[in-house]
Amino acid sequence: MTTATAPRAAARVVDAVKVYGGGDTAVRALDAVDVSFPAGRFTAIMGPSGSGKSTLMHCAAGLDTLTSGAAYIGDTELGALDDRRLTLLRRDRVGFVFQAFNLVPTLTVAENITLPLDLAGRHGDREWIDALIDVVGLRDRLHHRPSELSGGQQQRVAVARAFAGRPDVVFADEPTGNLDSRSGAEVLGLLGSAVREMDRTVVMVTHDPVAAGHADEVLFLADGRLVDRMEAPTADRVLDRLKAFEVRT
Ligand SMILES: Nc1ncnc2c1ncn2[C@@H]1O[C@H](COP(=O)(O)OP(=O)(O)OP(=O)(O)O)[C@@H](O)[C@H]1O
């Protein structure tokens, strides 16, 4: 007899509470959130401004700590790690893509892509990095500096860098926020291909229903709580759902 098992979580938070400040001005940015980000899936997090999206991402990724509850990358509980182990975990098992690209201006494209591996003293898998360079379409730009690239190209470097060490999960914070719609669509296509063709895991915070439409599932936050989720989203359905929240509140 076979038993259905839940997909393995690349990252998750359990009963996650985050309170900023104290006393009368305390803000409950996360209010008992349980979320699992399954391995091999592309999950988007949406919600109104101030709903806790960035807080959730930062706590799940080990960039910030929870007030109570637990955050895990794979089976590793982040709260149990000292600062040094947490830094190593972020470097070796988590990838990041930020709105502002965050490339090192003095390094070439090739050097930026392998930077996390170089810092870790890892050689990385040459074939994997080569495949990534082709996927992101930067083979003829490898010796350029970021300032010689368009915004879309810079974000494609950041995407390749995020996946270079085959992390358990890549967190992307508004990855298309600084891009025109065409470059944004390319970057979203790359994130989707990494998940579907290269068996990677992506968690993306976005305001943009079109971006969320590239994900396998969208989670909706409001007032620090998980209020809804949508499988196989399209931009139109996400937009309708967001409008429904606005009417309700
Ligand atoms: N460092 C901080 N100190 C105090 N309050 C904070 C801090 N960071 C976030 N908050 C508050 O926590 C709540 C959630 O913020 P968060 O940035 O997670 O929301 P968000 O959904 O990502 O918003 P946005 O879409 O505007 O980026 C907000 O009320 C915000 O003002």
TrEMBL record:
SMART domains found in the cross-reference section: AAA
Native source organism of the sequence: Streptomyces roseochromogenus subsp. oscitans DS 12.976
PANTHER family per record: ABC TRANSPORTER RELATED (PTHR24220:SF685), IMPORT ATP-BINDING PROTEIN (PTHR24220)
UniProt GO cellular component terms: membrane protein complex; plasma membrane
One GO molecular-function entry: ATP hydrolysis activity
InterPro entries reported for this sequence: AAA+_ATPase (IPR003593), ABC_transporter-like_ATP-bd (IPR003439), ABC_transporter-like_CS (IPR017871), ABC_transpr_LolD-like (IPR015854), MacB-like_ATP-bd (IPR017911), P-loop_NTPase (IPR027417)
Domain ABC transporter residues, every copy: 11-248
The protein's name: Peptide ABC transporter ATP-binding protein
Bilayer-crossing regions: none
Gene3D superfamilies noted in UniProt: P-loop containing nucleotide triphosphate hydrolases
SUPFAM superfamilies: P-loop containing nucleoside triphosphate hydrolases
Matching Pfam families: ABC_tran (PF00005)
Keywords: ATP-binding, Nucleotide-binding, Transport
